[in-house]
Amino acid sequence: MRTVLRRLTTTGLLATGLLAPAASALAVPALTGTAIADTGGSSAYGLTATGPVNLPPVPAVSSGSGTTRKTLLKEETTRLVTASVLDVRAVPGRASSSVARLAVPTAGLTADAVSATCDGGRGSAHLANAVLAGRRLSAAPPPNTTLPVDISGVGRAALIINKQQRTPDGRLSVTALELTLPIGGTAIRVASATCGHAPVKKPVKKPVKKPAAKPRKPVKTPAEAPVPVPVKHDLPVTG
Amino acid sequence: MATRNAFTGRCPARTAGALVPVAAALLLGACGGSSPGPSPGRAGAAGPREAAGGPAATTFTTLTGVPRDTTAATTDGLVIHPAAPVPVLDRPGGRPVATLPAEQLGAPTWVPVVESSGDWRRVLLPSRPNGSSGWISASGPGLRTAHTPYTVGVDVAHRRVTLVKSGRKVGDWAAAVGDPKTPTPPGRTFVMATLAPAKRTPSPIVLPLGTHSATLDTFGGGPGTVALHGWPDASVFGKAVTHGCVRVPEAALRQLSKVPLGTLVLITA
User: Fold this and answer.
1) Is the Cα torsion angle B204, B207, B212, B213 positive or negative in sign?
2) Which among B105, B114, B135, B195 is the top mutation candidate for probing chain A, defined by the most A β-carbons within 10 Å of its own β-carbon?
3) Res. A148 pLDDT band, cuts 50 70 90
4) A92, A141, A156, B27: most buried by Cβ count inside 10 Å?
């Protein structure tokens, strides 16, 4: 509990210290775009805001090997977005993030739970009782579902649900919710998980008498694509 | 001017899109009106329909309702070949918007996977509009997946073509790109086929890409497909003089023709 409180205090200081509009958009690329070649390196965070209100990703974990996990009981550094029980974990090839009781009052966005999972290069996102400006959102939306939302007095905002992007190093980044507000380029990202393909482990020899463990699904590595054989064909092209 | 001559082979049996007035004169000269089939009045969207769903996703068709690919990032190199035509959906489990045939221009269809969601793969399509993509199911039978270690880069501003293998640059050549009136269209596309035209000049190998000229609806009787190909006059390399195609030196063509079909081509303005 003490560590959680300490983290909250640190986050608060950071957030207040970075309120100047210039200091934005630093944290997320650092997490989703780091150039760990696809060796299964994973990362996850619960919540972040960029723009005039800058909230670095909290809590945030990354893993090159082994399991890492962080939980934050409450996040209310800024009134723009609040949440409780933010739980993130990362192991090679797998990452997950879940956020409960999310509220973005300006956009009329609330959700009982928001989660994103990335497993072996595949991603999914789930929403529980999510409502945007009085409109109920699908529980398991397809990737990159975009919803525009008009906020009276503020303008048109956009919400991307289950945002899935491939990072330059071939890993997959899944963000359950990304809300862009027309206020100085404010963007709020909730529940994000990034993962690559788990490294293939050498099978461990088990003692003969031990009962057989559940068979592991082998990690499929696609074959090299064939060298093309030119075909006799004419297509007028643009010279 | 020699460098502006249309590069044509036989005119294709079918074409798509209406003629742009500027291009019309070039086309008539190039095709000589001897084309057996092109009907300029034909609607671009009316491609051949296949049993699996919507119009066939080929270089000749224009698709509607397909998701557009807007990013320019590289991928993990996954490419897919359907053994039989497969339906292309607008989103995972969504409605069919096209059919991906098993062949493109007589060669096996290989398309790059640019996004995955569960058992669904979003692939780039070779049709108009540029950036056409769609979702196909990976759980169905007859889908072959493979990995290409290559990425081709076309830097239009610097008029260079690069070839990257497994993250390492293995080729970098000066190339001729589209002139300002008929620019090489930027975006993420792929090597659609490796063709050996009947006439070996100006290029013994032509690599049509999955993208089209944005300013020429048709060209030389074809649908305005942009391609990588050779050019006998080396003075064009490093210049913006083409109708959209990318002309590369012989050494580049030799290496590029060995790149697997479906390999990403990232064209930057």
Assistant:
1) negative
2) B195
3) confident
4) B27
Collect all residues of chain A within an 8 Å Cβ-Cβ radius of residue B257: 228, 230
- Per the CB < 8 A criterion, the answer to whether B218 and B17 are in contact is yes
Closest CA to B7 of B257, B242, B235: B242
pLDDT value at A122 more than 50: yes
H helices present in B211-264, as ranges: 250-256
- DSSP-assigned letters across all residues of A168-179: TTS-EEEEEEEE
Mutation site, A117, A122, A145, A238, interface B, largest B CB count within 10 A: A238
Sequence-separated (6 or more) residues with CB below 8 Å from residue B21: none
The ranges assigned to domains in chain A are 2-195
| Separation of alpha carbons B110 and A187, rounded Å | 37
Q: What is the CA radius of gyration of chain B?
A: 18
Rounded to a whole number, what is the distance in Å from the CA of A24 to chain B's nearest CA? 22
pLDDT tens digits, residue range A219-228? 567 888 999 9
> Strand runs (DSSP E) across A92-142, as ranges?
94-104, 109-119, 122-128, 131-132, 135-136
Whether A176 and A115 have beta carbons less than 8 Å apart is answered as yes
ipTM summary value: 0.74
Whole-number CA gyration radius for chain A: 21
**A234 contacts on B by Cβ (under 8 Å):** 9-10, 12, 195, 197-198
Cβ-Cβ contacts under 8 Å, A232 against chain B: 106, 195-198
Chain A, chain B: beta-carbon pairs less than 8 Å apart: 169
Q: What is the pLDDT of residue A230?
A: 92
What is the overall mean pLDDT for chain B? 82
**CATH code for the part of the protein at B13-36+149-268:** 2.40.440.10
Residue A238 to residue B224, Cβ atoms within 8 A: yes
CA distances (Å), B168 to each of A34, B61, B155, B252, in order? 18, 35, 17, 16
pLDDT value of residue A152: 77
Average pLDDT over residues B185-195: 96
Q: Where are the domains of chain B?
A: 13-36+149-268
pLDDT band at A215 (very low <50, low <70, confident <90, very high): low
